[in-house]
Amino acid sequence: MSISKWIGASIGWSFGGPIGAIVGLAIGSVVDAMTSGKNSPLLGQGQQQRSRRRTRRPQQRQTYRSRAQQQRAQTQSGDFEVSLLILASIVIKADGKQDQRELDFVRNQFTKMYGKERANNAFRLFKNITKQNISTRQVCLQIKEMMDHSSRLQLMHFLFGIAKSDDHVAESEIKQIYTISGYLGISNKDFESIKAMFYNSKENAYKILEIPKTATDDDVKRAYRKMAKKYHPDKVAHLGKEHQEGAEEKFREVQKAYETIQKERGF
User: Fold this and answer.
1) Quick check: is 64 in a domain?
2) Does 63 map to a domain?
3) Are 78 and 51 part of one and the same domain?
4) pLDDT tens, residue by residue, 206-252
5) Residue 171 needs a FRET pair 20 to 30 A away by CA distance; which of 99, 165, 177, 261 works?
6) Residue 111: CB atoms within 10 Å
7) What residue spans carry the region label Disordered (predicted)?
């Protein structure tokens, strides 16, 4: 596969803007070690329809900003994957070190979602991304403009998973994820809800449902229905089955929170 088709199949809408620059530099480093014709696409493997659509000449492309509204509802697995790699690199470096458990978490999650071969290729790119100085604001603003809200919530869930993977969530990591959430247009309630999914506490059950402890039983039931709808796996169906399975983790946490309050209140 030619390098132009490889890139087209790999990074979709993120071909432009600050993300495109970051990935382009990382790909350049990876390509130096490639053997021509023996490597599969790094990301977005199998998305033939999208690669054909994106292998037009550069001068025929619209800028990523002019396509934002059109693409927001069309975010695909490869676009999500690239965004995830970049944001993961930012969080991992937040505490001034790269813990092997965090790196293993990223690799294992990618293997679970995409399979071993694609995960290995993605991790090669990831290691080159972690060596770069990245503007969190610029990257997040591009993601916010191009990616739908449900997919951005899925990104946040993954980032908290990274922070928790070494069994200690550093304050610097929490601050970094909070900064990312703000740039991504994630509300404080959504941030606290997802954060609470990674801690065991009765109070966190209320935070997950985004309600105060003083909420009535009817308020609790309404909140559960609202959150179950927000985090339903079908919300990220456009990203592919691998991400629906990941979204089920958030959905189960919502159910668990509701059941905890049910048991506590006896209704």
Assistant:
1) no
2) no
3) yes
4) 999 999 999 999 999 999 999 999 999 888 888 877 777 778 888 99
5) 261
6) 16
7) 38-75
